[in-house]
Amino acid sequence: MHIYEAATGQMLATILNPTPGSCFGSELASSPDYFAVSAVNSRLMDAKGRGSVTVFRWSDYKRAFSKTGDPLMGTSLAFTGNELLVGTPGATVKKGRYLVTQAGRVQRFELPKGKEGAAWYSPWLVEKGFGMKVLCDGGPAVVGSAEPFTWYPEANFQVFDGPGAAPRFMFKNGGGFRASDASLQQGLLAIASAGYVALVSPTDGAVPMESSFSVSVAANCYALDSNSNLFWLGDGKLFRADKADLGGFAWWAHASMPGSGAADPAADANGNRQPDLVDYVTDRAGMSPVSVSVSNEMLAANVNSAVPRDVCVRIEVQDFAGGWQVIGSWAGGLWLRGDLSQGVPVERTWAQPQQYRVVYTWLGREE
Ligand SMILES: [Ca+2]
Question: What's the 265 CA to ligand 1 centre distance in angstroms?
Answer without folding.
Answer: 9
